[in-house]
Every structure is written in C-alpha cells, then in structure tokens.
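Standup, Tuesday
Yesterday: got the pipeline producing structure tokens again.
Today: sanity-check two examples.
Blockers: none.

Example 1:
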Amino acid sequence: MPKQSCPIKKRKKAIFFILFLVILIVGGYAYYSRPKASPYEYEIAKRTDIKQIVSVTGKVKAAKSVDLAFETGGKIEKIYVDVGDKVNAGDKIMTLNSDDLKAQLRQAQASVSSAQATLKQLEASVRSQQARLDELKAGIRPEEIQVAQTIVNNANNALRDAKATLEDTKARAESDLNQVYNDTINSLQKAVSTAKSALLTMTDIQYNHYNGADTDSISLLNAKANAIYALFDVQQGGRYTTQYVSSLNSGLFNTIQQMVISPDYTKTEELLIKTSLALSTVNQALWAVPIKSDLTATEKTDLDTQKSNVDSEIRTLSSKQQSISAQKVINNNNISSAEIAVNTAKNTLDSANSDLKLKKAGYSSDQIKAQQAQVEQAKANLSSQKALIGQAYANAQYYVTQIEKTVLKAPIPGVITEMKSKVGEIVFSSSLSLEVQKPLVTIMSEGNFEIETNIAEVDIAKVKINDPATVTLDAYGNSIEFKVNVIEVDPAETLIEGVPTYKTKLAFSEQSEKIKSGMTANIDILTAESKGAIAIPQRAVISSDGNKTVRILIETPDPKDPKKIIQTLKEVSVKTGIIGYDGWVEILEGVKEGDKIVVRIIEQK
C-alpha cells in the first residue's frame, strides 16, 4: 500500500498546478482588460428650482414708520385703505390708471409675435440653404438654371419692396411723432392760456377782498407772485392788477406762443416739463385763496372752475408725456422690424445670386464650400433673430414692470397713520420733477423692531423693495428663523473701510418677544427665483470674450466593440440666467435636461 500513494500525490500536485495557472491567466486578463476610468468629471443637467440669495449680517433696531410713494406718474384710480386700517405686507394700498401702459404692453407683445414669425422664416431659410448645399453635392440638372433665375428676379423684387417699406416706415414714424409733438404744443398753448385765465380770476378776487397787509392777503400775494414768475418769468408780481396780468406775454407763456407759430420739436419735451411745473405752481396759488363768507357765490364758482380747468390741463400734459414715450417705442419697433425685413431680403437675394452663379458655372469644391458658408450665415442670422426675440421679450417685460409700478403695496405689516392723497389726484413721475413728488401714505409698523444692514455694491443691484428674506439671530442659533421683507434701500452709498455699501432696512413679518434691539442678525435675501429651470454647476461654464460655453460629454458605442463606449466632447454656446446660492446656474439656451456637463478633465497617470 505505501508504494501506491506516490502516483496519487503526483496527480494531486499536477491538478493544483493547473488550477493555479488557470487562476493566474484569468486574473491577469481581467486586470489588463478592465475598462479605463473616464478622464471626465461631469454633472447631469437637471430641472430644478433655483434661488438667488444675497447673504449679509445686520443689527436689530427699533422700527420706524415708512413713507410710500409711486415710482411713476399718473392719475390715482383707486384707494383700498384709510387712516387707521391695518395692512399686511403685500396688501394693495392704491393704484394708478394704467390703460396707456396696457396698450403699450399689447403693442410690445405684438412685436414679440412678429419677431417669432421672423424666426420661423429664418429657420426655413436655414433648411433651404442646407437643401441647396445638398443639391450642390448631388449635382446639377439643366432645368434648375431657369428656376434659379426666377428666384433671383423674385428676390430682387422683394428687396426693392422691403427697402421701400423701410423708407415709408421711417417717414411715417417721423410724421406720427411730429403729429404727437404738434398736439403737445397745442396742449401747451391751451395750458398756459388756462393758467393765465386762472391768474386773472384770482387777481379779481384778490383786489376785491385780499389786497391788504393781513396774513391771508400776504399769503395770497406770495403765491400769486410765484405763479407769475413761473408762467411769465416776471418777479415781484404779487400785486399786479388784472389789466397788467392780462398784458403779460413774456417768459414761458411767450415761448410756447412762439412754438405754435414756429415749432421746434427738439424743445417740446423740455417745455412739457417746465409747463407742468408752472401749472402746478398756478394750482398752488389757486388753493392759496382763502374761502370766506365775504366771497360772492359767483366768485366761488369762478374759483372752483379755474381749479378744475388747471387740474384738467395738468392731467392732459401728463397724458402727452406718456403719448410721446409710447410713440417713440412704436416707431423704434416698426423701424426695427422693417430693417430686419430688408436684411432678410438682402440675404435671400445674395443666396439666390450665389445659387444661380453656381448652377451656371457648374459646381466645384470651392463652390460647395461657399454654399457651406451660406448655411453658416443663415444659422448666424437665426441666432441673431433669437437675440432680437430676447430684446422684444425684455421690452414687453419692461411694460409689465411699469404696470406693476402703478400698484402701491404695503412693504410691511402695520397701521395706516397718514393718507395724503385722494382718488383722481395727479401723481408726477420723477422724470418730470422731484419737487412735485411727495409721500402719499405713511405706515407705522405694529411691531417694535427692524433690521439695518449694509449691502456691498456688487450685490445691491439684485435687491428690490419687498424682497423676502429669512433671518437667524446669533442669540438663538440657526434653529429659530424669522421672516422679514426689504422695505428701504438707501440710494446713496456708505463707505465702510473704503468699500461702497448701501444701507438697507428690513421689517419683520411677525413680531416676537425673542427679538431684542442690538441683536446680530444673519440675513438671507431671496432676490430672484426660477422654478423648474434647467441648471448646471456654475464652474462648468467657460467665459471668454463675452461668450459663454459648456462642454457636453457624448457617449456612443464603439463600432468595433459594442461593449466599449467612446467618449467625445461637444462645446456649445449657452445663455445663462440667475445663479443659485448652491453654485448652480440657470441655463436659458444651449443645454437640455439630462445632458452630461463636464466640470473637470482629470489628468491620466
């Protein structure tokens, strides 16, 4: 038996040796044939909500009242509250009439639709140019030359018509604007004549009742002197008689009379501003007339009539200011559309001529390259039109913003303590004069505290009145949050250690016993938000010479080995929106959901 064990041991050793070799071979193959790690680090473009946040620190201070006024001018249409009423943040206080702005918004929206229609034409042009390129590569048919000649003739006619339309549009725009200016000049003449008539009526009452040295007489004298100076550029006119006032024809009054005879449209808007201020001064003088029992019924009626007439002229001048602005916008949009039509016609003609030339001469590699350039040009026109659509959208959004400015809302919860306006009153915009602006409503916070902070100039442009914010106080850590709203941004900078900052105040939406004066506040202001946006990491965006691009990772199966994946990079231009607090940026154009966006290329060792 011992002699038989040797062969068995030898067979076992051989088997073990063979198994070892198999394991070694399989392991080596697995090691050397394993897929190489990708050299690209990427993130998936996703659809998400992006919030733009400005983070600052500030101090809790005792709250103050807030004075509110409109940013724009117009006629007060409705008032929703009264003195003593409680309001919440965001509640409507009053609104201005916005009919003209709504009409301008509809015009801007029509421009958007027109731009979108042009975009479709340019998209068709790209397809047409691409089709022509394909035809060049495929070769020429004899009958195509005649078709190409017809296309050139039609394109010439279209360009001639487009140029004629552009000239007609420019002439009509100038004529329409001049008509608005003429109407404005006539309104200015009527306004100063109405103001002069009001001064005559006031002078009659002055000399009948208030021509002494008492307080009422002196007050009326001073108000009348201011009105005469504003209208006629004549000083010390407080005691001018009716006959002398009637003979005055100097200053602003004379300038406008001369404008009627010899219009100078370059000065129309300047005179509109000056006349509005002058009428405001005359209006103040009318209201300075004391209403006492010794005035006759006729005098009271005449005085009320003149007040109404001057108020009416003030409203008319405000309307003329809006009409001029609206006409300029309409003219710019119409001329821009006509210029685009000419450019499109030129490009079409150039393309048609090139196509005819190619067909007559026969196609070569250089001509195919030239047609390729036409394709690229058509694509460039398409990109340019997309930019114009963005401008048209921005124009429409401007009017949306202007309409929003006709609604005065409470920035904080509180109580209405003062109301300095009434329905029908004319509110002047800052474009006319800061002097005629005044606070319309005062709100006193129901609580006792607000937050004061300084925001750096790099962030202040993002912050707006009524922006919501979340606050934590160092005293309580991050576990307790308070809601606040931006209620005031100082227009002048404050230098802190040589750095320009802007003092900003925020009001608590709800008061709490936990809030104490002097506490340090950590503030996150929500300045913008985009819901359901396509977003990628900001660090993936490459900026160069004003252009922004990203690299998209393209993965395709290897035609030689379907189990392997070939990775290539495609660089595309993008249009970005807001940047979120988490480092992700909104993508408006260039990237779609699910794209693999390269954020870093890893060096291979």
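Example 2:
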Amino acid sequence: MATNIPTTSNWQETNQRYLTGALAVARSALEQHISGGRDAGKKDQAARETLQETAAAMPTPAALETLGFKFGLSSFEKDLLTLCAGVELDSAFAALCAKAQGEPQRAYATFSLALSALPEAHWSAITPDAPLRRWRLIEVSAGNSLTLSPLRIDERVLHYLTGVPHLDNRLAGLVEPMRAAVALLPSQHKLAEQIVTAWSGSAHLPALPIVQLFGDEVAGKRAIAAAACNKLGLGLNVISAQLVPTNPSELEALVRLWEREAALSQSALLLDCDEADTADVARRNAVNRLITSALSPLIVSSRERRHILQRSTITFDVPRPTAGEQRALWRTTLGAASSELNGLLDALVSQFSLSAQAIHEISAEALARTRQLVISNQFSVISDQKATVSNELAEVLWQTCCTQARPRLDDLALRLMPSAAWDDLILPEPQRQTLREIAAHVRQRAKVYETWGFAEKGNRGLGISALFAGASGTGKTMAAEVLANELRLDLYRIDLSSVVSKYIGETEKNLRRVFDAAEGGGAILLFDEADALFGKRSEVKDSHDRYANIEISYLLQRMEAYRGLAILTTNMKNALDPAFMRRLRFVVPFPFPDANQRTEIWRRIFPANAPTEGIDLNKLAQLNVPGGNIRNIALNAAFLAADANEPVRMTHVMRAARSEYAKMEKSLTDGEVRGWV
C-alpha cells in the first residue's frame, strides 16, 4: 500500500527538481528583462508551468514554498529570494545580473534589479520590518544606496532551500540539539501528555504558552520536554541561561536568529536555568527578556519556580521518581545482582531520593567496581566469592548514593567528618534512648510509611526532625555525629546566622537551596544555634515581623517534608515558642554533666597512645565544665606535655584548665582544684 509520506531521499530529490525549476523561472525573468520582453515571454511562461507541474506532483511542499508560508512571503519576495539563491548555485546568474544592470562589476542581485526585473514587485518588500530583512533571509551588503547594494541569501536559508539540515553557525556554541534523554518514568509520562495537550490546544495563538518545569529532577525535566516535543513533531534544542548574552543588542540578535531557526527546523527551545546564578542581576534580567520576547515554542527548566510576567505560562512541578519507580529502576539497572543485596534496595529507596539518571550511573559504577573485584581476586570457595562481591556491591552503592548531594551541599554548608561512637557519648540513659529512637525512625521509615501505609494517611509531618537543647559543650554536635556514624550518612552543619537575610524572601530561598541540595544524598542536616532564627513568636507590628514568622514556618515546613533527618540545636530552649516545639518530632535535652558523668568523660578523653602519669580522674571531675571544655583542656594539656617531652600529668592539666577558664572569663575555684597539688 502506497504511503503519502515521502522518504527523505524522495523528498530531497523532488525538492531539488522544484528548486531547479524555481531557478529557471528567475533566470527567464532576467533574460526577459535583458531582451526587453523579446522572445523571452514564452520561455518564462513555460518555466512557470513546469514549476507548477512539479509542485503538484510533490506529496509535501518544497522547501521554498514552506519557507514562503512560514515567513509570509509574497510572490515577489519569493522570487527575489530565489534570485539571490541562483547567484550562489548557478554561475550563469552572476553574468545575467551584470548584463541586466548594464555594468560588468555588478555581478550580483540588488533591490533595483529585482524591482525592475521580477513580476508583482512592491517597494514594501525592502523595508527593515518586511520578512526578507526582519528574518535575515537576505543580507544587504555595504553600498552607496540601499537599492544598489549587493544582496546575498543567508547561508542557513540557502542550506534550507537545498534540503540540507544545518544549525545556523551563529547559534553554534550557544544552542545545541538535545542529546538523548533518559527513558520516561510512568509519573513523567503524564506530565509530557499535559504539555502536548496544552500546546495542541493553543496552536491558534500568536505565541504558544511558555511551559515551565521546575524541581531538582534535572534529567527528568529534559526527558519530559523531549518526549512532549517528539509527540508534537518538534525538534528540541537547549540553551544554558549562563550563555544568554546580557548586551541588549546581542540578545535581540540571538532571539531573532533562534526564532528563524525554530521556524526552519520546527524546533522548540529548552532554556536551562537549573544552574543559573541568581545573584547575577544582569544575567537574570537578560534571561527574563529572552523568556518574554521569544515567540517560538519555549520550555523553561529551573530548580525553583520562576514568576513569569507578561506571558501566558503553564507550570509543572517535576518531582523525583516515586519510591516504587526508584525501586524498579534499581532492579532493572542492577539486573540479577539486585537479588543478592538482602533488602538493601529498600534501604536505598528509603534513605535516598535519586533521579533515574543518578540510579543508572550509580548502578553502572558499582557493577564495574565489583566486576574488577572478581577479576583481581581469587576465591577458594564459590560461596565466599558471592558473599564478598555482594558485600562490596552493597558498600559501593551506599557510599556512592551518599556522595550525590555533596557537590551542591559543599557550597552551602560545612560537611563534618563524624568520628564519635556511642561509647564516646556520655548522657543520661533517657537521652541515649531517644537518640536510638531517632536512628530507628530513619532506618525504618520505608517500612512504616510505605509497607504499613502510614504515608497514605497524609504526607504532612513525615519528616524526621529533632531539637537538641543544652548549654555549649554538652554534646549536641557529638550526638549528631554518633547518629551519622550509626546511619552511615553525611553530616552537614548549617550556620543559621549565615542563612538568615535581612532581605524579604531571601531566607526562604537560602533554606530551599539547602534542603533541595540535601534531598538526593539523604544527608543529616544540623542547623546550629537555632535561636538565631527562633525565639518567642514576635507580635506582628510591621512587615519584617510578619516575614520573620514566615521564615520560621517555612523552615519547620521543610523539616517536616524532608526525607532525611534535620536537627536544630539551641542553647536556650526556653526561648523557643511552644507552638514551634509541637511541630518537632523529638526534643532531646542535653543536661550539664554531673560529677559522675564528668569522670566518665575524663576517663575516655585521652587516646590509648597518649602517655599519661598520675592522672586522677576523680580530681579532674571536680572541674565544673561540660564535655566540650573538657576536650579543650585535655588537648591543650597534651600539647604542653609534648612540648616538655613528658607524659601528661596533673600539672599540665592545671595549666590547660587555667587557660580554658580565662577564655571563658571565669576563675578556677578552690573546690575545683582541691587536692591537685
């Protein structure tokens, strides 16, 4: 059965015949002008009839006709464009142009020649706003006058007329074709279909509505955009917001060139704002101008929702893959190896919220490393080999997942290297038990929320948040380190004083960046010195009071929604509003250590390799300071002893204690050093 859709080779062949016929019409028009109409009229009529027959036989329009339709060219404008193409494609045209203009040196097309030689000529065709010049289909070279200046067909347009696809050289380095995207997930299929519906239903508008895709799922957004454009028969090209020119004239030229390219290649543009520098005001303004001025199909990809004015916009939040989709991806990408991981996949899905692309990359890396293990090691027993490979695969998978958030989080917070274990933590048993419960909540989150169905009752409050309250040095940061070690997760400390901004809305933006960056790697977030933001809920007297309360509410909202563990620390629990305390799942008081607890801290403070002599733990426990100060005193005493080439003695501790107390603007009491000397 014959098809109405020609193959590429057939279309190129018929398009070439049509272009040849169009050139013959232009040539006969020149010849008729030269001869003054003698003998050339019949030839011109024959050429036009042949061209019409060729057009009627074509299953789809020729490039010249499509170009004329897309840019609204009149018959005269199409003939003028063909005349300029003829000079490039047929050597006879240059001689005919020179002869028609009566000057050998004018071997090129001009407006004057076109107006006198081509039928249906009209002066409006040469104005700057007319299609030929507005869309730069032709270029006007320097000359003494507009009508006598040389005309050249634009190179990109010439390639288009000949049926050769080619991205405009002036866009190279700025705009690039979309590379193959990852496969769409079921939840992403729905978003792609919504874009298709939105654009299909808006085809009658002068400009399609802008589609905005926002969220951290960068690869997923690209896959959705590519799938939607493919369904609509559109190509997709990408430009980074970082490359958008800030100079207004350069930006206008870029917009004009791209709109022409979009029409020629039937393409949409994906504006990638995912890594845009929001602090660069000039670039931010340039990106906004591009968004509002470009009339071609436009998709904007950004991590945060942009407020686009003056244009109709359809916005979609693109979340990370669902837990079920991530689990299926792990099984697919790991293949048979996934069955040997003994429940690790559930732990990965529970702790890390990863994109499809990240799961593919992590699986490939982990499998490659375990294959290398098999090659480089000899195992005496097959079962030993399988166990070792499975353990290695599990370790690589976990560690690689942990690193996913590091590139972005390292710019926003300080990553701590946790070394403390449960034995290092001296706390009353109730506090230790609460910390163990926190660890259990993090580990068993998937089972309780998904398998047991608690998440179906509502998503609110599913985040694991905790408040560690106590004086400086009582072990709040150490407790966070213990949890990070127990759960094998990264620990990041965020200084809230650096996050809070006096500019309205900036604090929420800073907090959003932290939480969004942390989601993929499941890091533990430690917001230090929470009293910088929290306090008694202020009475709303002005806009700043109102926005201060909004900032606090936003932080708690994100903590409640965060997939990982978020911890707040404060030295002044009583300063916190009870309304905020109720929204925290755990509150752990860190009391000032009593004498017995201080003895235990001193017992464990000196490493096994540190030489000590005559150290009396009971006497050291008389120092009325918490664990943080005890560590400072012990470390200072060790340096004093090392410098004297002696083991650590009570005299060294005494000197170190006096120095530490002076730093705290306190004095050692007689009761604290009784019996030391």
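Quick observation on example 2: The longest strand covers residues 464-470. Confidence is low (pLDDT under 50) at residues 1-8, 378-383, 536-547.
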